[in-house]
Amino acid sequence: MDLNEVKNRFGIIGNDARLNRALDTAIQIAGTDLSVLITGESGVGKEVIPKVIHAFSPRKHNTYIAINCGAIPEGTIESELFGHEKGSFTGANEARKGYFEVADGGTIFLDEVGELPLSTQVRLLRVLETGEFIRVGSSRTQKTNVRVIAASNINFMHAINSGKFREDLYYRLNAVPISIPPLRERRNDIHLLFMKFALDFADKYNMPAIRLTPEAREIIENYRWPGNIRQLKNVAEQMSVLESERTVSGEAASRYLPADTPDAFPVKVGQGGSADRDGLTDRDIIFKILFQLRQEVDELKAAVEGRDPADRTTLLSADSHNLPVKMADTPANIPIIVSPDIIEEHDTGRTIKDVNSEMIKKALAKHEGRRKAAAAELGISERTLYRKIKELHLE
Fold this sequence. Notes:
Blueprint (H helix, E strand, L loop, with lengths): L2 H8 L6 H13 L6 E4 L8 H8 L8 E5 L8 H6 L16 H4 L4 E5 L6 H13 L1 E3 L6 E3 L3 E6 L3 H6 L5 H7 L2 E4 L7 H19 L5 E2 L1 H9 L5 H15 L4 E2 L1 H5 L27 H24 L46 H15 L4 H8 L3 H10 L4
Helix pairs in contact: 2-3, 6-8, 9-10, 9-11, 14-15, 15-16
């Protein structure tokens, strides 16, 4: 089977060796019933591999179902997968087939399989080992002949060691492992993908396709792309719609790429001035931690006194406006420890009122005055933000 034909059929762009190896593996094992576990970062395009496997398998004329396990509430996931009997729980007004029953003879793709609850993992393991399942609320065992392909972006060894994923299920799913490389490791494919998206959006919005200058191309090829292909597609769409010039310069391209470098986060405390991926310095992060601690202390104090705190947000606590940042008092002698060398010398006289104003201004500036987004950034309610803007005369 020619890989280029497969790529054209499924809209796969790129010539990376690891991508080609993943596709070649998918085609080779398509004719078997082996379980497949696809791993890779979010946004790399893991969902195309199960389609390739199903299309080249003897099951291709039967049902193919793709399920996002992370999108189904824990309380209904077993009913969705295995079905339920009438009256088995509140709202079960009739019997219902689950995906494993509907897809009998076909293929099921379990995306984000690492999000499955442990109880559901046990039932999935039984299906994989025996082909048997029981509907919720039933005692009758049913059989199904389904090929299972799973995918996840989690670290399975860490999930197993922390008790969040069953080791036996992992090895049962991982009969054939397929890994999809992140976009930053497919540098030569980045421009190909970008131009494909640019042409698609030009057709969608009935406009000329955008092009990149050599400088802009170098910038997007050297960017880390933490959101992988999904992020690249979004950026291509934004440029297509927002850029008045159809040739995008390096400076223009940079505006669409949020700062995201491997050493940007976590921030090493005490370096003074380095910014994290949200544009906050390490000092700002320490302040936010302080405010969160103060919030917990205020709520504890309110609980001991038998009252509800009027404002649960320590960051904007009315009674702490004039407390020095480094000397914030706490009930029950609970200390808030901040190393003196973390706060710059000229900050030693600042009060929490000063910091409140600064943090609110930063959040509003970052979100271009959108108060709802700024409130979410600060971890407070929108109503509290309105009140504090007025109190601090920031209007």
